[in-house]
Amino acid sequence: MSTPTDLGRRRLLASGTAAIAAAGIGGATRAVAQAAPPAAAAQAKPLPAYVSWKDADSMIVHSPNTVETRWSAFGSSLITPADRLYIRNNLAPPDVSIVANRDAWQLAVEGVKQPRTLTVADLKSLGVDALPMVLQCSGNGRGLFSDKASGTQWKVGAAGLVIWGGVPLRAVAEALGGVAPGMRFVTGTGGEAIPAGIDPKSVIVERSVPISALEDAMLAWEMNGEPIPHAHGGPLRLIFPGYSGVNNVKYIKRLAFTRDETDARIQQTRYRIVPPGGKGHPSMPAVWTMGTKSWINSPAPGQRPLRPGWVQIHGVAMGGMNAARRVEVSIDGGKTWRDAAFFGPNLGRYAWRQFVLQAQLRPGTHQLASRATDTQGNVQEERTPFNASGYLNAGWRAHMVQVTVA
Amino acid sequence: MSTPTDLGRRRLLASGTAAIAAAGIGGATRAVAQAAPPAAAAQAKPLPAYVSWKDADSMIVHSPNTVETRWSAFGSSLITPADRLYIRNNLAPPDVSIVANRDAWQLAVEGVKQPRTLTVADLKSLGVDALPMVLQCSGNGRGLFSDKASGTQWKVGAAGLVIWGGVPLRAVAEALGGVAPGMRFVTGTGGEAIPAGIDPKSVIVERSVPISALEDAMLAWEMNGEPIPHAHGGPLRLIFPGYSGVNNVKYIKRLAFTRDETDARIQQTRYRIVPPGGKGHPSMPAVWTMGTKSWINSPAPGQRPLRPGWVQIHGVAMGGMNAARRVEVSIDGGKTWRDAAFFGPNLGRYAWRQFVLQAQLRPGTHQLASRATDTQGNVQEERTPFNASGYLNAGWRAHMVQVTVA
Asked: Is the pTM of this model over 0.90?
């Protein structure tokens, strides 16, 4: 129980199926839980036109700029396809005409020894890489705090695992002579139009992250094997793996190495960890890297009652800047824990791992919980202290799934 | 030149960008090749209704049952999304109503000690895994043989990298008491309707593979994070990683461990490596596992002329049953070779790896080639001997890409 668990396929099979065979299959006597009936989706808001291509039954539309993946719509095959990936925009996206000629999109690079404007075509000549990453909204889990913060009440569905394709930002910086001396941040500016009559600083999507993030950052033009959909930031998106969604600026038009953080409101006072009842201030911690977190995707909340018997309890675990190394699962609300097994491919430190625990559940109500530990020994916290904006909720207790067996 | 090359991101950057910086960016002086103009697509056949959701600009419609991914539509972010994945059906798919209640789909399992019929819901209680695999049509590359075989003239686009989600077939067999004694094959039967008035054996999609394939086989209900699209075999598909497309039976309704190969025509005389001019016979090698193969995706054939300067020559390499261990690239039609670097995540032995070589191309015409070596030391052949049906073409010479620099 106390050692890291990373069973390969073979061992998982060997240990799991013997037990299953011994118990007999649920088979003919066992029906499996169904996802929430589609009727629920039918009553919900329709997808906004710019993301009408998404799988409507898999999504919850909170608003035109906030669309969540249903808890039950996460699969067990690792990747989150574009048509199930969440949407969260701080401003309305630019006109879709910007993807008519993707290679012509221009990016101004500043704070390097030889600043210049590069097209996506130029960037493609500088290097190529593929980078798997959990993309997760800073507010994912806000709706699972017992305290209520204003903002979208995301549960687990403002997150997904995607593979970006693009050029390492380091290659771009090096090709332009390297980062200018004294720079401490990387600042990205989005290409959204600023509504007329508004102070640009109050709404512009411009974020700064510590320059250490340069190490694995990417300027990406692809996601999951196709050009980044316009709704997800195409033609060009700035990617800081391990950093929460807002830092990964869409439609990036300016990339600057800077001495200081941007003075945009989204950086100075928003996306800060603010004490309950307080107001954001630059002295407070910025919402940057994500922490150790896991949750159970199946059984998902809201399913019909399960029949007694064997259940594959599976979900995802991540460490933010570090890979998950261990996941424990509890079927009694956190009183006792058992090591789950990882399954499927390991896509590296910035990706999530899938885990499974095979369990027999008796009739009654069960509280299923998961708790991840990352490669640095950081253990997922039981409760994330509430903050005024409800950011970065990773508490395992808030992510428990209640199931009924009947 | 003679050692395996598997550079990490860091080394790739360090070696690549110094050279780029030294040469200066193509930047303002360099336009990048564009994909073939969309006009070509506009003149082509429209997508069949059952796959109308695919990305039309990325696909070549050969016939209602054969749809290819354009050479230029492969990206550099590893995965092939469902809407760019090729289609090849041996029979018209069953009615789409079979995915209305996926968990109710029934599979008869035979040749085990306790044969029985299981639903997808039952299967989901037996185990869960995620399995990345190159799915490749047995005839991929047929159109690149200099000899012409009848059948779809696939180039490279009857292949893709997908991640399946499902239950290991071993777990199912073990739960049913294990494989019955004496069985030497695994035989899968598809659920397509047999047209009236035809001998079922002449058209039924029923394939047998050696029982050794049981080791890593899967009964899959998911692909790339969502339920398998009906057009790709949902609700349930039999997956034998490393085996060519036809062996991965869609809409699987019967899974049998058998003493002998099925007597269906698709097994007995079709999908055999037949000498040119000959006829298929059970004594000839069956089209089962795939071999060592690679090709260059970018630059793709048919692009506009490149400007002189640095080019990222990238593509994919696979070993069939073994991972690719090394890829060499030639820019002079195979006279000289340089080691390419792998990039992006490694999804295991059945997946392809992405490779890149940074090269400077002078004005003129260049023949770009790639040559893979797998972990067992098998080197991609220069020429695959032609066979009557044009199966399994993996010759590097046939897969060369000609580019013009002007």
From this structure: yes
